[in-house]
Each structure stands twice: as C-alpha cells, then as structure tokens.
Amino acid sequence: MHIHILGICGTFMGGLALIARAAGYKVTGCDSGVYPPMSTQLQEQGIALIEGFDADQIKLNADLYIIGNVVSRGNPLMEAILNQQLPYTSGPQWLGEHVLRQQHVLAVAGTHGKTTTSSMLTWILECAGLQPNFLIGGVAPDLGLSARYQPHQTHFVIEADEYDTAFFDKRSKFVHYRPRTAILNNLEYDHADIFPNLDAIQTQFHHLIRTIPSQGQIIRPAQCEALDQTLARGCWSNVDTFGLNGSWQAHDIDGSSFRLHHDGVEVATLNWSLSGRHNQENALAAIAAATHVGVSVEQAIEALASFQGIKRRMEIKGVCRDIIVYDDFAHHPTAIATTLEGLRRKVGPQRIIAVLEPRSNTMKLGAMAARLPDSLSSADIVFCYNETQGKHALGWNASQVLAPLGDKASTWTDLDKMITSIVQVARPGDSIVIMSNGSFGGIHQRLLDSLA
C-alpha cells in the first residue's frame, strides 16, 4: 500500500513516515521548504521527498493521503484530493487505527517537558531490554532517531501533543492514541492560536482521560490546580503522583544529583548530566511510568545515569573563549523561566546572557507577553530579537513589554547588529542561552564564529 504524506518534514509527520515504512508501507511525502533535521533523517532512511504541494502529485496514485496539520484549505494538492474524492486521513488517526491499537501505549502529555520525558522513558525501557517503539518530537542522541517501529514489540512511547489534529479534525492529536499509561506532566495555557482559554485545553485533556482504561495508570504532578480541575470532571483510572508531596519525590543533593524517594522511603540516588528542577520532575514521571510496565527502579536509575539529554534542550552548541553557547527550545514563559533557573543553580554567580526569539504562535500573538519579564529574571543580560515583517513578526511591542527589566534588556530588529552586540558584551565564564523554537537565522554558529 502506498501512502503519501502532506507536510512530511514536521516532527510528528516525519516520525510517522519512518513508522509507516517499518510497517511495510510504501511511503512518499511532500512539504514546503524541505528542511533539516527531518529532511536529512528521511533522506537517510530512503524516503522520497517532493518540494511543495503541487496538485500534479495525485499522479503518484497513492492509495491514501495522510494530511499534516500544516495543510489548510486552499492548498493545491489538498484541493485536488478533495475534488477527486481521493481517500485521506490525519496522521494521528492513521497511527491510532493502524499501529497503536495492538500496543501498550505510554503517552506523555502536558504543556512542558513532553519531548524530554518521552525520551527519558524510551531510554529507560530500551536499557531494560523492552526495545520499545516510539514517536518523539525531537532526537535524543541515545536513540538516534525520532521514531522507531518494530511490529513484534508491544510497548509504544509517544509524545502526546494537545495541538489540533488537522484542518478537518480540531480535536487534540492525543485523543487518537488510547494510552494505557499516561503522563500528564503539567497543564497551563498555551497555543493561543487555536485555544481561546485554559478551559478549552482542559476539555481536550478530559477527552484524553476518558480514553484511559480503568486498569491503566495516570501519572501527574501532585500540585497542579489545572490538572485537579480536569480530573474533577471525571477519572476512571489509577492515579500516581510525583513532585512536591507526591508519591515519587526528588530530594536535591546538588546540581547533578538527587535522592529518589518513593512513598516516603529513599530508594536510590541518581547522578546524571542534566540540571534543573524541571528535569528532576521529568525523571520522576518517567520512572513512575516505567515501573507501571514492570521496570525496576534500579534499572530506571541506571538508564537515566547515562541519559545524554535532547537536542535543542540546553544543548551545548560550542565553547569559545570560555564562553558556552547553548541552544534551547524554550518557547513559553514557564519553559524560559525553568531553563534559566536550572542554569542559574548550575553556574552560580557566573553571568547568564539570554537571547530570545519569541517565535511560537502563542508568543507572536502576545498572549504570554506580560509574563516575559519575570520569566527572564534569572538572566543577567537579555537580548530579544523583534522581527517586524513576515510570518514571524510580533503583534506586540517587545521594548515596552521588557521595560521592567531596565537596562539589562534590549530589543533588536537587525540580527547581524544583535550578534555584534552580544559578542561585545560577552566575556569568559559567561553562558549564552539562545531560546527559540526555530532556526533563528543560524545564530548559534554565527555567534560562535564571531566570538572566535
């Protein structure tokens, strides 16, 4: 059977392509501005890519068209599919019906930490010998790929995104996954482009909870009011908790180790390469989920001790003149704050320079703009790139929003001039954290080259 994927270079759809091919399907795909890392991963795996959405692609005579949520009405290929009444479906629905139905699905949902927690959980199961299938919204160096499918294996870890499924299915993607083990990492307002308020997101999480069997397991932070409200709408599954006052707790030793407690008893100590309270809580959730499928705490701790992290999650891009340049995906005030607070605990009094591109749909719309100054408070110097034209232009005034930070914050509309200014103020011992959910004009390497 031949499937043709529209929007194949998206993180989810690219992983779906790998899974479909492993399941025995012929897979082709198309996207606009075919770009790495997903384009590179697909090409390395021998999956043919077509640039653009030309209607002539229906001449491929695919048996089924899988539509990514980047595709909307007016797309030439989509219009041809509709006009000729060709069979089509969404990626999440296809995955749920053709792959996940016979799997023990371990889904990781929440506003923050999905990719990191999914990768941790997958690595734990891998080290425990379970050889899990997985589909993750990023590439963990330990795993090598963002997705894997082996039909004879029965555990499937999936990053469960609350973003909408497709232009013809406005439910969250995760309602198609039917998990038996579900991590709900946290819940707050995000995706202002599709959700009017927090209540709308809570409704989607409620729909997810309705699909979890009574013999399944929900793993959630012990303290999260938005999740309290969501579960109060109805919960039919076992619930385990982590974090402050939770069943699973992390007692900090220093920036690179903590003591693991379960039900009030110290059970292990973890020494690892990650930092920050948020990563400790991600680890607690992953450990709890792994134990639900029979992995011992000892196996989980041993796996996490060797876990190398995720690309674009405080990934060191280079060191020059004793200045470390990090790349981080932070695209929401809460994520920005936890990233910088975690780094502050690691570097102590050394200076942190935060370089921010508010690029996500939520940030561009300004729904979270008022929270930015507080989220950046752990940084010593803040540079904000304020694109004024094109699809990434901000709908708010960055200079006015960041005014509470005083002289330590500056906004820029010229990327070259901003890089020059960063180089002028940077000094040995500094940590420069570049935060964006896009490529940010290749700033990482350009900055390292300029520093050199």
TrEMBL record:
What are the Mur ligase central domain coordinates in residue numbering? Answer: 108-290
Question: What is the name of the gene encoding this protein?
Answer: mpl
Q: What is this protein called?
A: UDP-N-acetylmuramate--L-alanyl-gamma-D-glutamyl-meso-2,6-diaminoheptandioate ligase
Q: Which HAMAP family match?
A: Mpl (MF_02020)
- Where does the record place the Mur ligase N-terminal catalytic domain? 2-101
The GO molecular function terms of this record are: UDP-N-acetylmuramate-L-alanyl-gamma-D-glutamyl-meso-2,6-diaminoheptanedioate ligase activity
Identify one Pfam family in the record. Mur_ligase_C
Keyword Magnesium set for record: yes
Its domain of life reads Bacteria
Please give the SUPFAM superfamilies that the UniProt record associates with this protein: MurCD N-terminal domain, MurD-like peptide ligases, catalytic domain, MurD-like peptide ligases, peptide-binding domain
Q: What is its EC number?
A: 6.3.2.45
- Record-annotated residues binding ATP? 110-116
Looking at the record, the residues that make up the Mur ligase C-terminal domain are 312-438
